[in-house]
What does this fold into?
Amino acid sequence: MVIIVAQKAIEHNLDARYMAKLANCESSLIPTKRSDFIQPYGREESYGLFQIHTRVHKNVSVAQAKDPVFNAEWTAKEIKKGKAASHWVTCHKVAKS
It folds into this structure.
């Protein structure tokens, strides 16, 4: 999984170490991981390497979120848009350290 993450980071001119640390924090690099966090509606609907929250990001299906290539590509694009700190609040801080 680290290779996929690094490839997407390089393709988008991002720091590969940062993205790998972010993915490790979010999912332990398990591409099909589902969040264990409990929301008022039940178990959070975040999936994949970077835990895309499909309830919030309705344009992303669960199958897409669990696809490591799609997930890493989507995440790289979101990081390029400057959304890392808002999408991955805790793990962004961990990955930056």
Q: What stands out?
A: Helices lie at 2-11, 16-27, 62-66, 68-80, 84-87, 89-96. DSSP finds six helices and four strands in the chain. The longest strand covers residues 38-39.
